[in-house]
UniProtKB/TrEMBL annotation:
This is WD repeat-containing protein 11. Keywords: Cell projection, Cytoplasm, Cytoplasmic vesicle, Cytoskeleton, Golgi apparatus, Nucleus, Phosphoprotein, Repeat, WD repeat. Residues 199-277 form the WDR11 first beta-propeller domain. Gene3D superfamilies: YVTN repeat-like/Quinoprotein amine dehydrogenase. GO terms for biological process: animal organ development; cilium assembly. The keyword Cytoplasm applies. Its main location: cytoplasm. The keyword Chaperone does not apply. Residues 954-1127 form the WDR11 TPR domain. GO terms for cellular component: axoneme; cytoplasmic vesicle; Golgi apparatus; nucleus. It is found in: Cytoplasm, Cytoskeleton, Cilium axoneme; Cytoplasm, Cytoskeleton, Cilium basal body; Cytoplasmic vesicle; Golgi apparatus, trans-Golgi network. Residues 445-785 form the WDR11 second beta-propeller domain. It comes from Oreochromis aureus.
Amino acid sequence: MIPYTVNIKLAARTLTGTLNLQNKTAVDWGWQGLIAQGCHSSILIIDPKTAQTIQVLERHKANVVKVKWSRENYYHNLSSPYCLRLASGDASGKIIVWDVVSGTAHCEIQEHSKPIQACDCKLIFIMFFCPFSPVLTSEGIVFITDFSYSKPPGSAGKKVYIASPHASPAHTKPAPATAPAPTGAKKALNKVKVLITNEKPTAEAVTLNDCLQLSYLPSKRNHMLLLYPREILILDLELSQTVGVVAIERSGVPFIQVIPCAQRDALYCLHENGCITLRVCRSTVATEEAADPEQSVQELVYDLRSQCDAIRVTKTVRPYRMVICPVNENKAALMVSDGRAMLWELRAHTGKAATNPSSGLSPLYSPVSFCGAPLGPNQKKIQDLSLNSMIGQTLIAGETLPTSSNQQEVQLKFLLTGLLSGLPLPPFAIRMCPPLTTKNINHYQPLLAVGTSNGSVLVYNLTSGLLHKELSVHSCEVRGIEWVSLTSFLSFATSAPNNMGLVRNELQHVDLPTGRCFAFRGERGNDEPPIEMIKVSHLKQYLVVVFRDKPLELWDIRTGTLLREMAKNFPTVTALEWSPSHNLKSLKKKQMAAREAMARQTVSDAEQSSVESSVISLLQDAESKSETSQAISAREHFVFTDTDGQVYHITVEGNTVKDGARIPPDGSMGSIACIAWKGDTLVLGDVDGNLNFWDLKARLSRGIPTHRGWVKKIRFAPGKGNQKLLVMYTDGAEVWDTKEVQMVSSMRIGRNVNYRILDIDWCTSDKVVLASDDGCIRVLEMAMKSASYRMDEQDLTDPVWCPYLLLPRAALTLKAFLLLQPWSGTFTMDVTQVDYSEKDEIKGLIQEQLNSLSNDMKSVLQDPELSLLQRCLLVSRLFGDESDLHFWTVASHYIQSFAQARQLTVSAAEGQAQSEGVQPSPQSHLDICHDVLCESSYFQKFQLDRVHLQEVKRSSYEHTKKCADQLLLLGQTDRAVQLLLETSADNPSYYCDSLKACLVTTITSSGPSQSTIKLVATNMIANGKLAEGVQLLCLIDKAADACRYLQTYGEWNRAAWLAKVRLNPAESSDVLKRWAEHLCSPQVNHKSKAILVLLSLGCFYKVGEMLHSMRHFDRAALFIEACLKYGVMEANDSRSAVASLTHYAHKLIEAAFLDYARLLRTLGLREGAALWASRAGSAGEQLMEELFQGEGGIPEAILGEEVVELGLESKE
C-alpha cells in the first residue's frame, strides 16, 4: 500500500514584536503604496490599505537604522518595469538593495576596512538616495551643491550657522497700538528670533543641538523648515531669513517630527503623545476686515486644521516615527515603539465649522475639479482621493476670494482605518497545536499558542500570520503551554517567589472557540513550590505536573480529576516524556468483537442475511461512539530521570498507576535535562551538551557530544516515519536526523544570527518555529536560514492592490486595460471579457488586482463621464507612477488651458463679447509646487507676495539689501528705493546705496543713458559681477538680454525665474525654449524636465515628437489623442506654415498610434492593438492583417469604432 502523506503548506515567515531604539528612523512609505519598517535586524513590508504584513526581509546581522524605497520617477516599460526595490542600512554600515517580491538581495554594499556607525550609515543613505538634502551638523547646516554619484564633491560645501540676531531699531517696526499682547510662546519667540548667517556665531548663539529635523518644503521652492521641540521655523533660503514660525503654547505637547506636503502648503506634525496634527498655511489675501493692507501679512501662519487621538505613552510605549503617503498625501502611519502601526486617513466633510469667528480661521474650500479637470454635472468623484482633491490651494495676495456659490466649505478629520500590532516584549513560551492528520484534515487550522510575560496567550494562525485570538489567561509570566485537542490547551504560570521560596501556581484549561478558561487544579496552587513542567500524554488522556521540590501529580484530563499525588520519598524529576506506544487499538478490537457478538446473538440464523447491512451500520455506530466516549481508558507509559540519571518507567491505565523497570544511569552522561520519544527511538539530552540516542528495538544506545553546553529542549518532528529532531541550546539550535544519527542543520548566536533563542517547536513536518529575544517568532525551513519568502506564495486574508507584485508584462497589461476603457463599447472590470491572449494563471492574477480595487474606484473608472486626461491621471495615481503623475498633471492643465484660450479667441473672432483679462485656465492655475512651470501671472504674484513677506521679516542690513535686489528684479523700483534709503550713515555701503537709489529714480528711456548702462552692465558681467549686471539690465527693461547672459553663464534656473517674472509671453517663451534645448542636450539629458517646460509653453507637437522619439509609446499616443480631442495639437508651435505642420502632425500621429498598437500586441491585447492600428494609416492596415490573419477579416466592431475615430480626427 502506498503511504498517504499530507503536509499543509505554510510559508516561512516572521512574527515581529517591539522595535529597537535604533529602528526609530527606519521607516519609509514608498510611491509603490507600501510601508517598509525596520524591526531589530528585520524589515517588515506593510500594506497600509489592508493593514497586513506581506513580507519580512532578513539578511542584516545588526539593527536596521534606515530604509528607503526606490523612486518611481522614470518611464515604465518592459525593460524598466514596475518592481519593488528597497534599500536598507544597518548599524554596522551594511547597505542591502532588495528585490522585495522574491525576498532576495540584489546587492550588498559595505566597506570592510572598518564598521560604519549608525549615524554614518544614515549620512550615506541621505547622500545616496536623497542627494540634494542638506546635512545637519552640531553647529550649523552644510549645503553640498555639486554632489554626484561618480565623484566626491569638489568643495566642502556652504556652511551656514544659526544665530540670534541683534535687531537694530532701524529694522524693527513698532507694533501697532491695536495689536493684542503676545502670548507666552510668542513672547519667547520674539526674544530669540532665529536666522541663518554665514559667520560663525558667538557663544550666545542658539545651538543646533535642540534642532530635531530639517526638511525642504516641496510645496514652495527655496524654503526649508527647522523643527525644534516647541516650534517650527520656516526659512526662506534665498534671503537666509525666518519667514514663519509655528509655535506651541506653554501647555501644548512638544513636536518630535514634521512632514511637509507637496500638493498643498501643509505640515503633518507628530507630537510626543502620539497625536498627529495637520496644519495648513493661512491665506495671505487681505480680508475686508483688515484696514491696513501693510499689516495684512506679518509671517507665514500655519493653522491647525485637524488632529487625531493621542496614544497612552509609558516607559516602553512611545511614538517613534510618522510617514505619509507620497502619492496622495492624505494618509499617515504612526509607528509606535511597541511594534504597533496605526494607520490614519484624512477625510473631508462638507459643512461649515462650528467654531467661534474670533479664532481667525478662514474656511477651507473643496476644489470644483476632479483629477485636474472641471467636474461634469453627473460625474462620479472620489473626494478623499488625495490632499489636492480635498482642499483648494492657499490663496496669495492679488488673488480673488472664492465665491461660495460653486465651492463647498469642508472640515478635515482623521479616521483610524487600520491597526497592526506586534508581539509583546519577550520572553515567550510557544507551542504548536497537534499536527495535521488524515482524520482532522477537513477542519485543521495551523495554530501557534504564544505565552507572554504579561500572562496573556496569543494564538496565531500561521497560514495568514495574523492574530487569531488574544486571551488574558494568567496574572504572571506564562511558563509553558500544552495542547489537549485542536481547540483547547493547558497553560501554566508561576508568580515571583516569596521569602520562603514558595509561589502561586496557575494551571488553566482554555477552550479556544468559546474563550472559556478555568483553573484545572481547582483551589490548589497557593504557596507551593513552582511548577517546572507539564506533560500531556499522546492520547491526551493524562497529564503529569512536575514541581521543583515536590513530588509530581498525575491527572486525568478528560474528567479533571487527580489520579495520584506521588509519595514524599518519590525521586526528584529532571526530565520526563510520555511514550508514543499505547494499547488503544487492541482495546478497540476487543470492544468491537464484544459488540459484534452481542449484536449477532440478538438475531436468529434465518434473519441473518437480511440484517447483515444493519449489523454493519450498528458496528460503525459503535465504533464512532467508542472513539468519542471516554469509556475506554487506554494504557499509556511515561519515563523520567532523577538527579542521578536513573531512568524510571511508569504505566498508567484508568485509575491504576504501576511502577515499571528501572534503567541505571549512563556513565558518559551528566544530569539529564530533557527526553524525547518517537517510535522506537528515545533521545536524552544533558546539561553538558551530550545527546544519547536509544534504539529500543535493537536495544542499542549511542552517545554524541555536541560541545554546545546545556541541552535545553528536544522535540521530534510530526509525521509518520519522520525521525527529525529539533534541539535547543543556550546559544542556538540544531536539527538532527535520528535514523542516521547526524546533524542536518545548525544555528548559533554570533555566527549565523544575532539573537538568542528562547523556545522552539515544529510547526509542520519540515518547518520549525523559533521564539527569540529580539521579540520575534520565526517560522523557518529545516535548514534554519533566512525567513524571507516569495510574496506570490503568500496566503493573504485580504487581497492587496499593488500592481508591482505582478510580472512586468502583466503590470503593463493591467495599466493598458484601465487606460483604454471602454472595451468594445462597454466599461468593464473583468479582464476575461477582453480579447487578451495570455495564460489563465496570469489572467487570474490581473483579475485579483482588479477585484481588490474599492467599489468607489471601480465606479469612477467605469464612469463614461471620466475624460481621457482624468483617466490617465487617476491610473498614474493608482500605480504610484511618479513620472506619469507629474507629466499628466502638467499636460492635463495646459491642454485644457490652451483649449479654453483657443475657444475664447474663436468666439471673439466670431464677434462674441469677450471681457478683458479672462483667465484661460479652467482651474485658475497650476499648483505653486511646480514652480517655473506655473503661469507667469500667478508666478509673479507669488514672488511679489514672497518678497513682501521677506521685507516684513528682515532684521539686518544684509536682509534689507537682498530684499532691495529682489524688488529691482521684480520691477518694484519705488519700494526698492525706500529700502536703499534706509541704510544708516555709519554703514560702509551707505554711499553706494544712496547713489543706487538716485540711479533707480532717475533712469530715463533716452538712448544715451540706456546704452551707457547697458555697456556698464556688460562689463560688470564680463568681470564676474553677474548679479549686479543683470540688475542693471532689468532697470532699463532689458530683462531678455539679462536672461541670455544668465543662460550663457550656466544660471539656467535664475534665467527661467527672471523670464517668468519680467518678460512678455513671446520673450519668456524664447528663453524657456532655449532652456528646454539645454535640458535635452547630451551633457545634461533631462528630457523629462524639458517636456514639462515645453508643455507649459503649449508646444504640444514638439512634446508628442519627443515622447515618440524617446520610445514612450503609450504616453505619446494617449497625449496626442488628448490633444486631438481638445483641438490643440498645433496650439503654440512656431513653424511658419500651418499646412506643413499639419503634414508633419499626421505623420507623427500615424507613427505614434502604430507603435502603440505594436506595444499592445506584445502585451497580448489584440483588440486594443487593432483599434489603434486602424487609426495609423497604411502601415496600420498591414498590422491589422497580421493581427487577424486566417480569421476571415477584421471584426466589424473595430471597423465601426475606426470610422468614428477617423471622423473625429479629420474634424480636428
